Amino acid sequence: MNPQEIDFHLSSMNYEEVGNAFSAQPVFPSAVNQTDLNGSQEERQPEAAAVARTPAFDDSLLDAYSRAVTGAVGRVSPSVVNIEVHTASGRTRSGEPRERRGGGSGFVFTPDGLILTNSHVVHDARRIEVTLADGRRMPATAIGDDPASDLAVIRIDEARVDEPGLIAAALGDSQQLRVGQLVVAIGNPYGFQSTVTAGVVSALGRSLRSYSGRLIDDVVQTDAALNPGNSGGPLVDSAGRVVGVNTATILPAQGICFAIGINTAKFVASRLLRDGRIRRSYIGVSAQTVPIHRRVVRFYDLPKESGALVLSVEENSPAKGAGLRDGDVIVALEGKPVAGVDDLHRVLTDVRVGVSCSLTVLRLTEKLELKIVPEEAK
């Protein structure tokens, strides 16, 4: 029958006949409500249910976003731990020491049981207990903590390299992050273990002031929800690599959370493992950020239009020995511009401890170069 004959045949049929013709031979036969040549309706239903329960069928129901999140969680969750901390909290009326309990999150980053977390989670802890992803509780000891970067390293006591349940998380590169990139936060907020939240990188290069007063650089802002107890947990990318250590949230806001970049964490962890602490320089001044007159900026071709005004100089300090005076404005240290107090903290790194440095200051309208030898901060 050629196409013209088919068209004529259909046109000669009434609507009822056409409807009956299509309903008699369905295009997509269903295993639930139709009987095929292989068996009855009751025989086909269990087979259809079995197909629906297969992993391949389940994966097909997930979109790309869901597969990315579930994949990242599957890779990192075994490395995330819950940290319970006991700190001293005065004494009872009978004179017995009183303990206060706290906690947070962390993640294993070496096969022998080294865990990275926040300093404010384990600082001044008398006793630390770690709960692994498989539910085992193990004692741990603090290797070192750095309040200035809010990072700490602890070790599970008597852990072996082949210890079951100790799976090291893969560390990424926070310098490769892009705004809008998918990230996943894993932790134990309010004691709910292995809680997962997802979001995107909201901003990069943020600065966050730690509870010690120093400025933390390379901070990642994200809208992946964080709550008390998430501190110290990993922030991971879609490939399951740790790109940050969750550290803080702005409580009144919605979706403004922060994580310390993993590159900063790598540096701090290496120094804590080597020395047990981070060595930082000290010059002995009290300062504040002030603007510099535009004429002075243009005359000396200064890279910044502000500096650190010296309010006071401590006695017997490196600044006193270098001849620094009240009212001087620090504009550079060892050739690096200083636009304010925060810049001064940044350049006072451990490489300058005990090493003579060039300090550039403005004294009234005169530009001076002073030699200063920073000491190690206590």
Describe, in short, the structure shown.
By secondary structure, this protein is α+β, with helices and mostly antiparallel strands.
What attributes does this structure have?
6-stranded antiparallel β-barrel; alpha+beta; disordered N terminus; Pdz3 Domain; 378 residues
Your description of this structure?
There is one protein chain. β4 and β5 form a beta hairpin. 23% of the residues lie in helices and 36% in strands. A 6-stranded antiparallel barrel has the order 1-2-3-6-5-4. Strands 7-8-9-12-11-10 form a 6-stranded antiparallel β-barrel. The chain has helices spanning 3-11, 15-24, 41-52, 55-60, 64-76, 119-122, 262-275, 294-300, 318-322, 341-347, and strands spanning 80-91, 97-108, 114-117, 125-131, 137-146, 151-156, 182-187, 195-209, 215-222, 234-237, 242-249, 257-261, 281-282, 285-291, 306-313, 329-333, 336-337, 357-363, 366-372, 375-376.
